[in-house]
Design brief:
By secondary structure, this protein is of the alpha+beta class. Among the domains are: 161-253, no CATH class; 261-394, no CATH class. It has helices spanning 37-43, 45-53, 95-98, 140-153, 166-183, 186-198, 202-210, 212-222, 225-238, 253-277, 299-321, 329-338, 346-356, 364-378, 410-418, and strands spanning 20-24, 31-35, 64-71, 74-80, 108-111, 135-138. The chain is rod-shaped and about 110 Å long. The termini are far apart. The relative contact order is 0.08.
Length: 419
């Protein structure tokens, strides 16, 4: 009985029926992929264009050749001419690609020298004086892992993104998204990456707080509404300040303009609320008229109202004078809503009142309670929280009340206009 010839496995990364060969000599051992042009064309305009404008030279040659080449420290996919018959590969040629292809963070180096924050406040000037997005240097090993994962996605193989370290997952996702965008196949990665990042739950939103501009870039590529919305609330709340390492110039101009416009809406609402705070009063008697200091029994209540107005005016003025006001106003309004602002503490107000006029101040507790309830009602909307994390627990001092709707999400807008 004769020996049965070995038949190579028909699976990624080497398909015996594949007509596209991709070779990489970036590590200790060369790696080869054998894939299908029909699959690559279906999902990637980059490959479709390559096949169209550079067909095989030899009419007898029905295959395509690409090489991963390291030029000037950057690994790129380069097409080469083919002649003759397609070489026969064994699955073992690239078996090492399938295992251990996770992108290692230590193989991705970032040049942070050009990360500059900006506090310029008009959309027309939020461009030229901002730094360019940081440029990463990816080692050949990491580049090969990245190409392997993206090419695997053409065959529904999910990329092995870290599920235990959100910082690692972010770097891996960014590198995959960058390559997939170049190849025009982001749609293949969006479900996988969105799912993995979403599984981090609270850790994801805590991580977003550290650098929302960086995360919003990823959200735009992934078309991830949850991450995008969370980032936008941060960006709008802190405006015009920019307390993050990723510079404004890293964001698209349309997004910067959106942040500016929505921050202006919040600013208008805040100014109106502050005006109302400085006019607060208490209804007195059956007719619910403001207290009259010239009338018996109303003097203490009238003084209490004036003291609360003064205390609020001092805090508002102090914030207005601060260059960092935008980073602290949220905490101020949230304390008003909770009734925990120190200057409105009962004993603090009592001390001020007694210094103003010696008296028992028997109605002070009730008067202050009513005033604080009225204040809480006034600031309820501006003090609301649209984040998925508690701002005070996570040391977020700016406002987090911005509401982000579908009209603010570019890919939903695009889908709506094309339907």
């Amino acid at each position: 009985m004769g020996l049965i010839p070995f038949q190579p496995a028909d699976a990624f990364p080497v398909f015996k029926t594949g007509d596209v060969i991709i070779r990489a000599e970036l590590g200790a051992e060369p790696v080869t992929f054998q894939l299908h042009s029909s699959v690559l064309i279906r999902h990637s305009p980059w490959f479709a264009k390559a096949f169209q404008f550079r067909p095989p030279k030899d009419h007898c040659s029905n295959w395509y050749l690409f090489k991963l080449e390291n030029t000037g420290g950057k690994v790129s996919l380069v097409q080469h001419d083919t002649e003759g018959d397609r070489p026969i590969l064994s699955h073992s040629t690239a078996s090492q690609v399938v295992h251990g292809v996770e992108i290692k963070v230590e193989d991705v180096f970032e040049n942070t020298a050009n990360r500059i924050s900006s506090t310029r406040t008009t959309p027309s000037t939020m461009t030229a004086r901002n730094s360019s997005p940081p440029v990463r240097k990816v080692s050949p090993k990491a580049a090969l892992a990245c190409y392997t994962q993206v090419l695997g996605a053409f065959y529904s193989i999910p990329p092995p993104i870290s599920t235990v370290n959100i910082s690692t997952a972010l770097v891996q996702a960014e590198e995959l998204v960058k390559l997939a965008a170049d190849l025009g196949c982001l749609h293949l990665l969006r479900p996988y990456l969105g799912h993995v990042l979403g599984e981090y739950r609270q850790k994801l939103f805590v991580a977003i707080k550290q650098d929302p501009p960086r995360w919003v870039r990823l959200a735009l590529s992934l078309e991830n509404k949850s991450i995008y919305t969370e980032c936008l609330v941060h960006l709008i709340g802190a405006h015009p300040k920019w307390p993050w390492s990723t510079g404004r110039a890293a964001l698209p101009e349309d997004l910067r303009r959106l942040v500016f416009n929505k921050a202006h809406e919040v600013e208008v609402a805040r100014t109106e609320i502050e005006r109302d705070l400085l006019l607060i009063n208490l209804p007195y008697g059956r007719n619910a008229t403001p207290p009259d200091p010239t009338q018996p029994g109303q003097t203490e209540t009238w003084i209490t109202v004036q003291i609360i107005r003064d205390q609020l005016a001092l805090r508002i003025d102090s914030l207005d004078r601060s260059k960092e006001a935008a980073l602290h106003r949220g905490k101020f309004f949230r304390q008003l809503r909770k009734g925990t602002l120190e200057v409105l503490d009962l004993e603090n107000v009592r001390t001020i009142c007694q210094g103003t006029m010696p008296s028992t101040w028997k109605d002070l507790r009730d008067d202050l309670k009513q005033l604080k309830e009225y204040v809480a009602e006034l600031v309820e909307e501006i003090a609301s929280n649209e984040l998925m994390i508690d701002p005070d627990t996570n040391n977020i001092g700016y406002l987090t009340c911005a509401k982000v709707g579908n009209d603010d999400i570019p890919w939903i807008q695009t889908a709506g206009s094309s339907s």
